[in-house]
Specification:
Strand content: 15-25%
Number of strands: 12
Mean pLDDT: 76
Order of helices and strands: HHHEEEEEEEHHHHEHHHHEEHHEE
Helix content: 25-40%
Radius of gyration: 44 Å
Low-confidence stretches: 183-202, 449-464
Length: 464
């Protein structure tokens, strides 16, 4: 981080673009990306965990604690009973977390340049099983307290087309991004960086679909396909983190290369937004939780020595809590002095907390969207209004239809009769013409006007 601060000071007035990206690195998210030891494999945060099941209180096993890396909060862990050996009929769980509030290396702190939380404690997010956690919608719990969270499931069922836009997709797309041959990654990254990861053959974990996860994963895939790295502001799936490094991972020998990767990442996200590639609809069936939290100072002074003996005395970090060993020796000789020393020492309250999550009942509140009016009700309402204001009933409608059919049939008959009359009239005129011609010929013959050999009608006429 000192290198980032020094580079930021050097380029502040010379290169505004580089100074802008160095300022982005000089943040909590940038800090987390540069700590290789803060991997999601480290479970030192979880000191104890028990399920509140119907058959007792079994301890959590490794298969029930799944790693997850948040770009804003660093290594996170998901407590899940999916694919677990523990009975799924459980009322909740309880866990004790160790915060390790002895980080003297970071005493210089960070510049306040974002809206991230700068408090001390743990970020908690309750989300449906199998989904990616949206940590920005979680809540914080401080150390030195026992926090109880009562959850009540809520299921929202929305209507799709034509009433609204939602999707019934259940599984999040986990397709591996394909690097484009003309991407920045192939043109600028060293060949050694493009080798296949040793962990790339591990089968990916399947996640359920949410609009938040769909949008984040889609944009992250666009960044990977274009730049060959991970954007530090987006969620990265564990299998992606195994294969690709962060775009903001500072190259101490060539800091401009880091800036180019970050610029490539920003451009890839902007192009994906402009092209509408990552427009994810809300799920038609959405599960959420209504939370109620309670807090009480924890642990009481009377229980701190017992807490030390059970969780701290044999731990790797026991040397940091040597004062409680001294208190344990004083209890047998001077209880009053030992109790005063316990009240002055706040190491346990500064470094530990207990979280209880309880399922509040077995009922699920359902919020179901229904059409404001069904097609049958619409038809009935239209008929009722017409009958009320115009006096139209169903029988009236049938009579109108019958009248229209009769009128159409009468018009057709009229057209046929007119055509027949016209044909008859044409034949009458032809007959009258021939009759008139015959009468005139007879008159002319009578007066000896027509020769004896005159032909008529194509036939020879002979008079004796």
């Amino acid at each position: 981080m000192e290198t980032v601060i020094r580079l930021h000071a050097e380029h502040a007035g010379v290169d505004p673009t580089m100074a802008q990206y160095l300022s982005k690195l000089n943040s909590t998210a940038g800090y987390l990306e540069h700590f290789a030891e803060l991997t999601v494999e480290n479970k030192s945060l979880i000191l104890d965990c028990h399920w509140d099941a119907v058959n007792g209180q079994p301890e959590c096993n490794k298969s029930e604690i799944l790693p997850f890396f948040s770009p804003s909060y660093g290594p996170c862990f998901t407590f899940s009973l999916v694919n677990s050996q523990t009975p799924t009929r459980t009322n909740g769980f309880a866990t004790i977390l160790y915060l390790n509030d002895f980080a003297e290396d970071n005493i210089k702190g960070f510049p306040i340049s974002s809206m991230l939380s700068y408090g001390k404690g743990v970020r908690v997010m309750v989300h449906p099983p199998g989904t990616l956690p949206e940590m920005d919608r979680g809540f914080n719990i401080p150390p030195g307290h026992e926090t109880t969270v009562r959850i009540r499931p809520i299921r929202r069922e929305m209507l799709g087309e034509p009433y609204g836009e939602c999707t019934d997709e259940d599984t999040l797309s986990m397709e591996t991004p394909i690097l484009s041959p003309d991407s920045w990654y192939f043109s600028s990254a060293p060949v050694s960086k493009r080798k296949k990861s040793a962990h790339s053959d591990i089968p990916p974990r399947r996640y359920r679909y949410t609009s938040f996860a769909c949008e984040n994963v889609c944009k992250q895939k666009e960044v990977i396909a274009t730049c060959g790295c991970l954007d530090l502001t987006l969620i990265a799936l564990p299998e992606h983190r195994r294969q690709y490094a962060s775009c903001g991972l500072l190259d101490l020998h060539n800091s401009s290369l880091t800036i180019e990767r970050m610029q490539c990442s920003d451009i890839a996200i902007i192009l994906a937004d402009d092209a509408g590639k990552c427009q994810c609809l809300e799920k038609c069936t959405d599960d959420r939780y209504d939370l109620t939290t309670y807090q009480v100072p924890w642990p009481h002074e009377n229980f701190q020595l017992a807490f030390y003996n059970r969780y701290i005395r044999h731990a790797d970090f026991a040397a940091r809590f040597a004062v409680y060993e001294k208190v344990g020796q004083m209890v047998n000789t001077n209880k009053s002095k030992a109790f005063k020393l316990l009240k002055k020492s706040d190491l346990i309250r500064r470094n530990f907390l207990q979280l209880n999550v309880i399922l509040d009942g077995k009922e699920t509140t359902k919020m179901v969207d229904k059409p404001a009016i069904s097609p049958e009700a619409l038809f009935g309402n239209v008929g009722g209004i017409l009958n009320l204001w115009i006096g139209i009933t169903f029988i009236t409608v049938i009579e109108v239809i019958d009248l229209v059919l009769v009128l159409l049939a009468g018009r057709r008959q009229h057209q046929d009769r007119t055509l027949y009359d016209r044909r008859d009239c044409r034949e009458c005129r032809e007959h009258a013409l021939w009759q008139d011609m015959d009468d005139r010929d007879y008159s002319r013959r009578r007066n000896n006007i027509i020769p004896l050999r005159e032909t008529y009608g194509g036939h020879g006429v002979t008079e004796d």
